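Page 47, continued from p. 46.
Same chain as before, 528 aa.
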Amino acid sequence: MMQTRHYTLIASPDLSFGELRGRLTELGWDMESASEKPILEGEPELAVFVHRTEDTRIHYTYNPVVHLRVLQFRGPRAESWHLKVAGGISALGAKDLHRLLDSIDLKHLLLGLFAAEELSEIEVIEQVARLCLNADARVARTAVRVRDSLLSGAVGRVATQLVEEQTQHPERSVWFAHLSQPELRKQVLRWLMRDFATSNASIDQTLRSALADSDPEVRITAVLATARLNAKNAGPALREAAIPTSTSEGADRRDRFFFERLRQTALRYLATESVAPNSKNHEGKREQFRKAIHGELEVRDDPTLLLHALITPLEPAEPPKRLPEEVENRDESYFLKRSGLALRWVPPVPHWLGEDPTGAPEPQNPIRRVTPNNGFFIAEIPLTTAMVFWSSEPDTEPPAAGNKNDASPFLCTYDVATHLCEVFSHLERASLHLPSADQWEMAARGPDGRRYPWGNCFRQDGQLAASPWGMKKGPQNVYEWTGDVGPAGSRIVCGGQATAPCAARHAVSAADAAAQGSLRFILEGEPD
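Result:
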C-alpha cells in the first residue's frame, strides 16, 4: 500500500492557539477535537482540524515548555493546503531555525532543535552537530537525537538525487561532488595522489568532477592530480576547467598567472609518456614539475610551499597522550573545566611556517619547518567580552556565548592581556599564557603549509572557517597578542586582517601602550 506523505508547518511561537484557530477558520477549517485540561489555559496540547469541503486534516500538537506548535497536514490535498496555510500564518523557516540554533537562550535552542526535527531541515545539520557538544546536557542530548534523525531522513532523498545526477553526468563521480565540504574533496584528491601510482576508470570520474567543482582550490588540486596520476582520459576536462585568475575567483594576486601555468604544464605533461620517478634522462621544467607533483621538490619559497600544500594530504591528528588535570574531554572535544572555554589540540608534528620576505618593515618570518615539543591546547576562539565579565563573578554560570563562533572578541592592551592570563590561570588552576607567534601560526595554519586556515585560495567568507586543528576566527579585522618580543621591545601580533595569510606578523611599538588587540590562551601539553 502506498503511504501518504505528510506535510509539516511550525507556527511562530508568538502566535497563540486562539489566533491560530481564528486564521484556520478563515481558511475553511473547523476544530474537530482538542485535549481537555491543558497545562496552559486556552492552549491545548493536541487538536484536530478538518476542512469543511475536502478530505484533509490538520493534526496540531503543542509543547508548552518551548512553545513548539506543529501542524501536520494529512490527506489527498495535504501538499496544496500546506502551502496555502503557510501563506496565511506566521511560520518558522530555515532562517528562523538558524537564528534559534545560534541563540544562547536554552528555550530558543530547544525550540530550534525540535523544529528542525519536525521539519527534517537538513540545512541546519552543522549547527545541530555543534550543539551535540553543548555544555548543557539537555541541549546536547536533544541535539544528538535530532542529528541522527536528520541524517537518517536525508539518506533516501540523497539517494534519489544521486541517481538522477549520475544519469545526467555519467562521466563524473556523483559521490565526490556531494561530499559536503570543499576540504573533504581536496583531501580525497591528495590521498589519491599519495596512494595511487596511476589513474583508473573510477579515479577518472572523480577527477572530471573535481575539475568542474565549484571550489577553486579543488579544481587546482585536481589539475595536479590529473598530471600526477597520468589521467589522460581526464585531459578534455582539464582543458575546460575554470582556472581562477582574479581575487573574486579565489586567486591571490601572487597566483593569478601561476595557476594557469600549472594547467598548461599539466597538459604538456599528459601529452607525452610519464616519466619514471628516478629517470635521469629528463631535466628542465618538465622534470621540475614531475618532482613537484611527486612531492620530491625542495620547499624553499612561496611557490614551492604552495605546491607542497596543494599535494599533501592531512594526516589524522593523534590525541594527547596525557590530558592535563585542568582539561576535560567531551566526545573528543576539549574544554577548560571551570569556565567551559573550548580548546583545540595542536599535536607535536612538523608544521611549515613562514613566507617569502614582503619587503615591508615587519618581523622576519622565513619559511621553515617547526615541531612543537609536546603539543599544546589553544582557545578555539579569542576571549570574549562575556567571558571576561564572568571572570569577575566566577561563582555564576559561565556564559554559553563563550564557545559561540559569532561571539565578539574582548579588546585590550598587552598589559591587560597578560593580566587576564593570570586571572584565568588562577580560576582554572592552570598555567595559561599567550601563544608565541609560531604557536599561533601552527594553530591557524595546520601542518601542510597552507596560506590561509581554510586552504590556499582566497575566500570572502574565509574568516568564518576553522583551521585544520579547529582554531576559529584567526585572520580577522582584529590583531591578536602573542608572547613574542620584537626589535626594540616591540610586541608581535598576528592576524589583523580578514585577507591576511597565516604567516603575517606585525610589530607594535613598545611606546604604543594604548594599542589594543584580542587574545586567546594556550595551555602546554603534558610531556610523554
